[in-house]
Amino acid sequence: MKVRPKCYSECDDYYKKVLDRTSLRQDNIYQVIEIQSESYRIDGEDGVGPCLYDKRIFDIIDPSIPEGYIYQFNYEDEEQSHEDDEGFIWRNSVEEYNITPKCFAQRAFFDFYHDGREEQVAIYNEYTRELKDTKLG
User: Which of 3, 45, 90, 117, CA to CA, is 20 to 30 A from 11?
Assistant: First the structure.
């Protein structure tokens, strides 16, 4: 999947502030490394590595998901039940998903990557090297 930051003039004040704090350039198209429920993981130009950005600051240029990406779903349910005035009982829950290359499909992969763990850094570097080779080839 490929995205481009929205035109600055199309954003409300909140998203203008978000864009101002990133190194993303509006004239660049970015390869999405991971799709999450509310964000995209993109490797920007600031040298910080892959970061999460709110989906709402992007226009989708190419919606196709590359081969080798997998879908993961996570559902967490609160242990505590809640009851309203009419006796209706419910539990809060959180549903999240991500679509990511299979090589990143381990719990806390990017946390470990940003902590500098050798295994995750090597896996990420190999993936980005293959991605660049594919673009050039």
Answer: 45
47 burial (CB, 10 Å; 0-12 / 13-18 / 19+) is exposed
For the chain, how are helix, strand and coil distributed in percent, rounded to 5? 30, 40, 30
Report the amino acid identity of residue 61. I
Query: 31: how many CB neighbours lie within 10 A of its CB?
Result: 17
Alpha-carbon Rg for the chain in angstroms: 18
* 3 state SS of 37: coil
> Residue 137 — very low, low, confident or very high, per pLDDT cuts 50/70/90?
very low
What pLDDT is stored for residue 117 in this prediction?
94
Interval 22-34: pLDDT, tens: 778 888 899 999 9
DSSP run (H or E) holding 33:
strand 30-36
Contact yes or no for 101/69 (Cβ under 8 A): yes
